[in-house]
Amino acid sequence: MLTFEEKWEKVLACDAAYDGQFYTAVKTTGIYCRPSCRSRKPKRENVDFYETKAEAESESSGFRPCKRCQPEVDRSPASALVHDVTAFVLTHYKRPLKLEEIAEHVNLSPFYVERTFTQATGETPRRLLEKVRIDKATHLLRTTDMSNLAICYEVGFQTPSNFYRVFRRLKGCSPSMYRKGGADESLIVRDSRHRSV
Ligand SMILES: [Zn+2]
Questions:
Q1: C-alpha distances in Å from residue 145, one per residue of 140, 142, 149, 176
Q2: What's the gap in Å between 92 CA and the centre of ligand 1?
Q3: Across the strands, what pairs with 24?
Q4: How far is the CA of 19 from the centre of ligand 1 (A)?
Q5: Cα(182) to centroid of ligand 1, in Å?
Q6: H-helix segments, the chain
Q7: Could you tell me the fold of the domain covering 128-182?
């Protein structure tokens, strides 16, 4: 679902929306973390990613949970729902996705899914879908020569006007400005790369 580079971007951004989707293991310390962990960032070359806690803690991997972000603890009773909805969105963001379809996937009513997800994360499933699409778009803007229009459709938007509107709302600038390095977040990512230890 996410490449190494994309996961690394989420780790640098301490992005809690991806908590539970993967874990960051640091080979030099033997510790594994959630993406949102605020501990000092490891060096990129010392990092391995695991899909599950069990894989990170298995005998062959042997990582221990971080005391700060406590990746082994399920924080909310809704965490299974949040995990499943997020995983579904990460898998299907490229096509039109309705709340009804997400709800069907987790076998619950759309109303219940939206309410529980929003209570647990502070955002609706629709906002998560927009965030995932824009995260994909910023990754492509940074790492490819694809046109804005091609990226718009590649990440699942149906119309350019909607893509530009949502992009600006989340990033505070246009895709073209973002590509030129005018966006705050790209600067933060570059800064934290320099700060890496
Ligand atoms: Zn941690």
A1: 8, 8, 11, 11
A2: 28
A3: 33, 49
A4: 11
A5: 30
A6: 4-12, 53-57, 79-92, 99-105, 110-121, 125-143, 148-154, 160-171, 175-179, 184-195
A7: Arc Repressor Mutant, subunit A (1.10.10)
Please list the active-site residues.
33
* pTM of the predicted model as reported, rounded to 2 decimal places: 0.81
Give the fold, CATH level 3, of 4-65: DNA Methylphosphotriester Repair Domain (3.40.10)
Q: What is the DSSP letter of 28?
A: T
Task: Please state the domain extents for the chain.
Answer: 4-65, 79-124, 128-182
The answer to whether 106 touches 80, Cβ cutoff 8 Å, is no
Distance 36 CA to ligand 1 centre (A): 8
Residue 162, CA distances (Å) to 84, 130, 180 in order: 26, 10, 21
Question: Residue 5's CB: how many other CB atoms inside 10 A?
Answer: 11
Residues of the chain with pLDDT under 70: 75, 77, 182-197
pLDDT digits (tens, 9 = 90+) for 115-142: 999 999 999 999 999 999 999 999 999 9
